[in-house]
Amino acid sequence: MGPPKAILLPAVVLTVIIAFVVVLQSFTPVDSSSFSILSSAAKDDVAKVDLKSSAHQEELAKRAHNATLGFGEIVYISMPERSDRQDAMTILATSFGIKIKHFPGVRGTEMSPKAMPDGVAKKTLPSEIGCWRAHANAWRYLLESDMDTLLIFEDDLDWNINLKQTMELLSLQMQNSKIRLSEPSDYERANAPYGLDWDVLDIGSCKDSGHPDFKDVYQMWDDPDVAGLDVIKKTRMIYESLQNFGLTDEDIGKKRLLSPAYRTVCTSAYAITRQGAERLLMAMSYIEFRNAVDTDMSRAFREGRVRGYMLTPPAISQFRIGGAKDTDNRKAGDPRLGTSINGQGNLHGFSTNLKDSARAQMVEKMQLNNWEDYKRVREERNSVVVISDDTSA
Fold this sequence. Notes:
Helix content: 25-40%
Shape: globular
Radius of gyration: 30 Å
Number of domains: 1
Number of strands: 13
CATH architecture: Alpha-Beta Complex
Number of helices: 13
CATH topology: Spore Coat Polysaccharide Biosynthesis Protein SpsA, Chain A
CATH class: Alpha Beta
Largest sheet: 8 strands, mixed
Structural class: alpha+beta
């Protein structure tokens, strides 16, 4: 007869506890100070990086080639029902290795009167109110995230096929900015391809004449992907903007220019920083909002409430097909909409100020004639001569 259960159970428990203690003692104790030593070593490695060196700046500028062009994210604003534009933006982005997120547009007629800012002009259309609210939601989205920057697109864009190279050059220029008002912090030098001294970086404006008292404040560089002089001359606003800064036809069509934003038109493509999102919400929501988002943002630049930089010629352009499909911000019957809701169609669409249209190239890249391919491959296979290696004869 075995030992009583009352005696056996405590013995088993005691044996397990002793074994567990022995196993624990077999491990070498970890000195917690080793973690701080590793941490210090890592910090030393970071400290060894010369943040002002051209090698570091070039490496940082290469972030312009990632899926978000070196910004935290890219969002594009589009009304929920404009699936046509969403299809186009998706094809355009994926064709060029860019990641974008759909950000819903807002219907102004569905906004509560209580949510309207002070100062809205009576002539402001509900569609313009909705457009402003969608942009304001994007500004708030950045502040509610952990990102430093956000790039905001509207849904009717085109860009040059070498957009990433253009942004890389812009990054190098902004890392060595001659027009910023303060020295960049170590954090900026280490992490921000375009710096963080700005509120708005406009890369898709239709126009910027520049502040009349600061026409000497700009930075200029060669860019092989700038549209030629003949192309830029077709867009009077951009051509005159460059002339206002003293550029002649010898430079126009070869160089890009970065300047403080002053009198701007369009919000097709622009980036914001966290302090930019705060200032935009303050100037264009908390304090007041008057009419269309682009003209109100321009007013904020002119009044000095928001610090912006303007890229001219722009890296991104509006894409137009003609007709009512080109905008959601005008009343039916507006003569600027044309007579057709369909316009000429995407294949006949156009953009301005671009050397080579990304929309045009994406169509070419996706051209396929499946049956011609089958025919060609079949002919190639049938033309192969089989040589026998039979040497028995």
